[in-house]
Amino acid sequence: MKIGVLSDTHMRPKAGKLPDAVLKGLEGVDLILHAGDWTSPEIIGWVEKIAPVESVAGNNDGPDIVNRFGYSKLIEAGGLTIGLVHGDRGRGRSTEQRALFTFQDDNPDVIVFGHSHIPYSERIDGLLLFNPGSPWDKRWQPRFSFGLIETDGEKTEARHIFFDSRE
């Protein structure tokens, strides 16, 4: 199974479309996970045209997005249990710590989170902790990014896709 991973799109409809690098990179994915901060419901529709979407809301999302997705969830996909959370809520000083805290009793295989806009991938005692970064608002990062997770149910690989243009 091939899973596209987005977070912190922070896009407005006037952008017109997702960046070409994202559209190309998400070709052929079976599922897209979005870790919140869509900021506009219209963007959800753009992403849903690519593949089915599982998402949570972030701290910059309005009530319509919060009511649709909630703030955290566990998803079963490709033989994996995936925790999905934005990362702005809960206990811990860092976004990573807050994401871990959210699912401390759930024993997921993967936790996908966002909020910091910082691409991150680390394995901790077999758990994959993954932040795709942002495809639109890179903040202090040198490049825009999103992620791909591929699994056959036994082996799971995650990687970031970096790009330079919003076009």
Uncertain residue segments: none
Distance between the termini: 28 Å
User: Could you say what the CATH architecture is?
Assistant: 4-Layer Sandwich
Shape: globular
- The share of residues in helices is 10-25%
The CATH superfamily label reads Metallo-dependent phosphatases
The count of helical stretches stands at 4
Q: How many beta-strand runs?
A: 10
Percent strand equals 25-35%
Query: What does the largest sheet look like?
Result: 5 strands, mixed
Rg measurement, Å: 14 Å
Along the chain, the helix and strand elements come as EHEHEHEEHEEEEE
* Major beta sheet, strand line-up: 3-2-1-9-10
Mean pLDDT: 97
**So what's the CATH class?**
Alpha Beta
Class by SSE composition: alpha/beta
Write the layout of secondary structure elements.
Layout: E1 2-6, H1 20-25, E2 31-34, H2 41-48, E3 53-55, H3 63-69, E4 72-77, E5 80-85, H4 95-102, E6 110-112, E7 120-124, E8 127-131, E9 144-151, E10 156-163
Parallel strand pairs: 1-2, 2-3, 5-6, 6-8
Antiparallel strand pairs: 1-9, 4-5, 7-8, 9-10
Describe the structure.
The chain is α/β, with parallel strands linked by helices and 167 residues long. The chain is 17% helix and 32% strand. The chain has helices at residues 20-25, 41-48, 63-69, 95-102; strands at residues 2-6, 31-34, 53-55, 72-77, 80-85, 110-112, 120-124, 127-131, 144-151, 156-163. It has a 5-stranded mixed β-sheet with strand order 3-2-1-9-10. It has a 5-stranded mixed β-sheet with strand order 4-5-6-8-7, covered by helices on one side.
